[in-house]
Amino acid sequence: GPSNSEGAGKVSLLKKVPALKDGDFTLAECTAILLYLSRKYNTPDHWYPSDIQQRARVDEYLSWHHANIRANAPKTMWIKVLIPLFTGQPLPSEKLQEVMEGLSTSLKQFEERFLQDKAFIIGNEISLADLVAIVELMQPVGVGCDIFEDRPRLREWRRRVEDAVGKELFFQAHEMILNIKELSNIQIDPQLKEQLAPVLMKMLK
Predict the structure, then answer these.
(1) Is residue 28 a contact partner of residue 14, using CB atoms and an 8 Å limit?
(2) What are the structural domains of the chain?
């Protein structure tokens, strides 16, 4: 989300997270950060393949992802936890239904166009495309919308991602998302509520 602090402005011109500071170099946007780190540290080839066509498949998914999976999956968390937390009012169930319908359409395209009958998005090995996808798709799970339950192909893909990353690391990385409903019990500063409530509501329009 946005941050108006002076420190945030020094790390990211956009004043948003995530942001990376590597010496004097700063970078914003999660996809750009992932690609930068994969290149800098010479990661195993399967994460962002050197083969130009395989790399293009990763890029293709990342481009599609933002307007589809990312446009829908995180909204489940805003509707069920974050907006009620900051506004003090639950949203109508119709709003969640609308988002879930949009997400269902995206998941159908994800399975049919990208996953198909492959183990991972671009083939037999995990890539950055799978990492970016799974992080978004765990957000509905964290608020009680198990999108994997009735989708065996998607469920098996998730299991393979868990195994490839390592189950312990996988659940450690998603710990905050899976426990997001615990935020309902915390006290929010009234001034912060006043600032963020309109921003969160605008995200759902």
Answers:
(1) yes
(2) 1-43 (3.40.30.10), 50-204 (1.20.1050.10)
For residue 12, which amino acid is it? S
- DSSP for 133-191? HHHHHHHHHHTT--TTTT-HHHHHHHHHHHHHH-HHHHHHHTHHHHTGGGGGGSPPPHH
Rounded to whole angstroms, the Cα distance separating 103 from 7 reads 35
Please say whether the beta carbons of 84 and 90 come within 8 A. yes
* Tens digit of each residue's pLDDT (9 = 90 or more) over 75-84: 999 898 888 8
Please list the alpha-helical segments (H only) found in 25-127: 30-40, 52-67, 69-77, 83-87, 93-109
Query: Considering only CA atoms, which of 129, 119, 147 is closest in space to residue 55?
Result: 129
Closest-CA residue to 78 (of 58, 59, 98):
98
What are the pLDDT digits (tens) for 137-161? 999 999 999 999 999 999 999 999 9
pTM of the model: 0.84
Answer yes or no: are the C-beta atoms of 199 and 1 closer than 8 Å.
yes
CB atoms within 10 A of CB 64: 17
Q: Which two tokens stand for residue 2?
A: 């946005």
Q: In 10 A of CB 80, how many CB atoms? A: 23
Residue-averaged pLDDT of the chain:
87
Residue pointed to by tokens 């759902």: 204
- Asked whether the beta carbons of 154 and 112 are under 8 A apart, the reply is no
Q: How far apart are CA 30 and CA 35, in angstroms?
A: 9
Beta bridge partners of 25: 22
